[in-house]
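Structural prep section.
Before we set up the soaks we want a predicted structure of the protein with iron/sulfur cluster in place, mainly to decide which crystallisation condition to try first. Input record follows.
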Amino acid sequence: MNSKTESKVNITIDSMQLNVDSKMTIIQAARANGISVPHFCWHPELSVAGNCRICLVEVEKLPKLVIACATQVSEGMVVHTRSPKVINGREAVMEFLLINHPLDCPICDEAGECKLQDYAYKHSVGFSRFDEDKVHKPKRHALGPNVMLDMERCIMCSRCVRFCEEIAGEPQLTFANRGDHVILTTAPGEELDNPYAMNTIDICPVGALTSRDFRFKARVWEMSATETICPGCSRGCNMHSWARNNEILRNTPRQNPEVNSYWMCDHGRLSTFGEVNSPERIVTPLIRKGEDLVEVGWDEAIAAAASGLKSFRRSEIAALGSPFATNEENYLFRKFVQEVLGAKSMDYISRVREGDEDDILVRADKTPNSRGADELGIRAEENERRLQGIMEGIRQGTIKVLYSLDGDLGSVFETELLDKLELLVIHSPVRNGTTAAADIVFPLATYAEKNGTFTTFDGRVQRIRPSVAVLEADRALDGFSMSRLDKFGTQFDRWAKGQRRDARPAWKVITALANLMGKKYRYPTVEDVFNQMVQSTPSFKGMTYAKIGSKGLRLEGSVVPATVEAR
Ligand code: SF4
Ligand code: SF4
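Run finished without errors. Recording the tokens verbatim:
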């Protein structure tokens, strides 16, 4: 026998004959073959605790039920996950778990995505024989800046404790007391404040741990979840962006074994939708008229930019792409700058914060797409001038125009330097010091409002998708006055204000600009831009949106790193 056959065993689960890895436990073998075994304390990325007992299964020739999470498969094993004996055992476990559990599903944030609630429907008898008083414990205990604990809801599964020790590397949680008075608490002198603390909320199988930011903002079923990518750093964690009434309310990690496993950092989860919901959002194009930036329509803004850009020599124009922009936007931007403006001075501003990274997920590069900008030649060797040269050119007066896809140049360009320019055209989602110095501002759709792709630091191209809407604002609001909108109440009013953000992805604006300046750019959709980018950029060879799917595709020739699990 070779080692390959030695490592496999034949087992039967619920009459299905399976050939599985001999190192697997029953729950792993079942899961790998689409058979679901209920579990609370078991998690595929954590050590086995075996304390909740809900994964009981029957193994022929064994006298008692066994827990599927801690029982390894063996040759010839016959397992039943739905026999009368198993169902009886499961119902007993559920009854035990529910003895002291408060029945506050109607006000619990977890309702709708709670394992205990789901299993109470699927694996419980539907009534309680418990007449005594339940044990009461504190219901609002802040474990740290982002996580709130309801001690009555905790079923002591220890997932959160193991996560902190095994994944975050910070043993901040522990249990105190005994029996039915046991409580989850922080270790002496500790707060639950590690950079990954909020993952405990996702893996808590009940509503014991809730987000202090999201608590009571919405019921799960009121929101839509969009598959997208965190723009907080170059790791590109996969996430769901949850929105209601055109407002993002929370982000949660989406599993991708090659990028972020099941996790994301608290910064990415909490901070990346601030800009989307910001009161500083620019809701319509702006043009400088005298001292003031004046709101205008899209046609006027694009016409002004086209005529302004045309009136300078190519050597007087510099361009800045953006590591926050999508691959499609940077591609079309570079093409436009080279083909239409004929400018050869181009670069982008990095946002690397040396030292601000860890060996779990967080990267020092605080942008989602510098690798993409590099691949697409925004910072190419052959560019006549790069960032320092462009700044020097502006100082000396040889560069008179700056066209920027990056909406915030403040980390590098002082206002006095921007003031030396004769024309500053910029795409920006929010008002800031740079937009205050600009001559033409195009309101930019954020990552949460457009389709496209980002490329991670290690060369994985991943799709972003809109979770809130901004486009077609005027059409959506046809016939509505603000006073009429108010009559629809707060929720509709919020939705309508969201619709009023008439921001556009940069590729659309660049297409319109190019056509006005005499080039025929035909890109009805962003996918058309992507397809042309793939044809003209060897490292993206063979990619399509369909092939990228929800997990991404690696650039041709990029090194495949160890998976997150393997680290
Ligand atoms: S708080 Fe949640 S994850 Fe932590 S032990 Fe209790 S039930 Fe488990
Ligand atoms: S590690 Fe980076 S990409 Fe992942 S959640 Fe945090 S900020 Fe976002």
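Observations: The chain has three domains: 3-98, 106-111+130-271, 286-532.
Flagged for discussion at group meeting.
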